[in-house]
Write a structure and sequence with these properties.
This protein is of the alpha+beta class and 220 residues long. Helix content is 16%, strand content 24%. It is built from four helices and nine strands, in the order βαβββββββααβα. The strands form two sheets. Strands 1, 2, 3, 4, 7, 8 and 9 form a seven-stranded mixed β-sheet that branches. Strands 5-6 form a two-stranded antiparallel sheet. A hairpin with a 4-residue loop joins β5 and β6. α2 packs across α3. The longest helix is centred in the last third of the chain and has 14 residues. It is globular and about 45 Å long.
Length: 220
């Protein structure tokens, strides 16, 4: 990823202004404005699962290579990124309590380089959210029938990642453009309205949603 060319007209990542608070539903926020509504069906937002390459132009998304299928009650090898390979979309990035538009990106498949997944416990000390990764590891919201194969707790899943038993799939995110009009519309809107709204959540481009993980249902 470090050898990929940059985009000349893209501002430095550290110089970008936020476009909303993280407590706003990004899809609804984009769809509500005709200047940004087109973007609302083709963007990627993975809070807690993105790491920048050193120059903060290209990035790496991290996801599970095995998910717990609550319908079947066991682990299955499955990429949550497989429907993104080769696709281009707007990328949004969470930093602290604010979200940023960082450009147009193309997903680059890296799984062939790590067919059995990747493990390095140091990445959890560098911006990767263990909680977000644990949530992405569940593939179904439905409870398991007859009590068979009860899903592990989030804390157990986090420990499995730390121990290297569960591996991670890296997904390359190559910056291929920057929509200045979209950025300015979002920047000005945020600065003038300062919205507050619904809770944030992961989002995948709509034509690839069959590959997204479903969030685990909480049990009483």
């Amino acid at each position: 990823m470090l050898e990929l060319p940059g985009v000349d007209h893209r501002p430095r990542t550290n110089a970008l202004s936020p476009i909303h608070h993280t407590d706003v539903n990004l899809k609804k926020y984009l769809a509500a404005d005709k200047r940004t509504s087109k973007c609302s069906t083709n963007f990627l937002y993975l809070p807690g699962l993105l790491r920048w390459c050193p120059k903060k132009v290209h990035a790496i998304a991290m996801g599970p290579i095995h998910v717990f299928d609550s319908d079947k009650g066991h682990w299955v090898k499955k990429s949550i990124f497989e429907t993104l390979y080769g696709k281009t979309f707007s990328l949004f990035y969470k930093n602290g309590f604010e979200t940023y538009y960082v450009g147009t990106y193309q997903a680059v498949k890296l799984l062939d380089m790590f067919p059995d997944g990747f493990h390095d416990s140091k990445i959890f000390n560098d911006g990767l959210s263990m909680s977000a990764l644990a949530d992405a590891t569940f593939s179904s919201e439905r409870k398991i029938k007859n009590g068979a194969g009860q899903p592990p707790s989030s804390s157990n899943i986090r420990q499995l990642y730390l121990d290297g038993i569960l591996k991670i799939e890296p997904l390359g995110l190559q910056c291929v453009g920057f929509d200045q009009n979209l950025y300015m519309a979002l920047k000005v809107r945020y600065e003038t309205c300062r919205p507050a709204g619904l809770s944030g959540m992961m989002h995948y481009p709509e034509n690839t949603q069959q590959g997204r993980p479903k969030k685990k249902q909480k049990t009483e």
